[in-house]
Amino acid sequence: MNRPVRRTAYHFGMRLHVGCAMWSLKSWQGRFVAHPLPSRERLRAYAGWCNAVEGNTTFYATPARDTVETWAQQTDPDFRFVLKLPKVITHERRLVAVEDPLRIFLNAIEPLGPRAHALWIQLPGSFGPADLPAVETFLRQVPTSYRYAVEVRHPAFFDDPRATAQLEGVLAAADAEWVPFDTTVFFAKLPTSAAERDAWTKKPRLPRRSHALTDRPIIRYLGRDAVTETVEGWQHWVDVTVGWLQEGRAPTVFVHTPDNADAPELARRFHDAVRARVPQLEPLPEPDPVEPLTLF
User: Fold this and answer.
1) Predicted model pTM
2) What start and end residues bound the annotated signal peptide (predicted)?
């Protein structure tokens, strides 16, 4: 069962945040965003479509602080970044003896202020129940000025009720969220495109999890390259999201497809589907018009 909601005072009305795995993709140029568009303007253009984004690039390298300042300048204070902790912290050192890289990372992202919605601790598939003390110790030591969200990929956390309860207890003690990556729709049938075949070998294949631990649940949903299949497959999450909003929670939902070609539009469609059932939901921003691509 979902845990009781920790009530939070918001300066905005009821909001659902939706977004993609990135804010810039070549196939979006001239379709969702202008082309050409300087790199310093791409996040601003994306923020006209979505009000949240996954910070996957921070897994590979901590950005320069002045780069992060430009991210803040291109987005409203209510825009949500869910920033993945660097791999040196989560995968190489496995949350142990990480004071220095964590300090450097936190200093770099400080300009985001309230936009840093949650720090995303994505753990490797080898990180199992026996490693939970490292998670508990880490969450006790990190600054409480940030929210934390943990993504696990070890099958035991999904298949073993005792391991599930242990992880939930550790996260609940720190008011941290468990981030599910729902790939069940994607793996429901064999791949039919190059992008799907590539994702087939890389994405985790785990049971769906739909329980929120905090007032700010975060969902990652992977559909198919076919838009109709992606939309049909997310009905479960529409139902869950509607329920969370009615409970007073403030969810963030990220829509993925193997090629992500339609991701900004799909994220908005998901928001529309929820708003059709929760009319008091605040609308998304209106994207800037995009001139069609020409040959000359």
Assistant:
1) 0.93
2) none
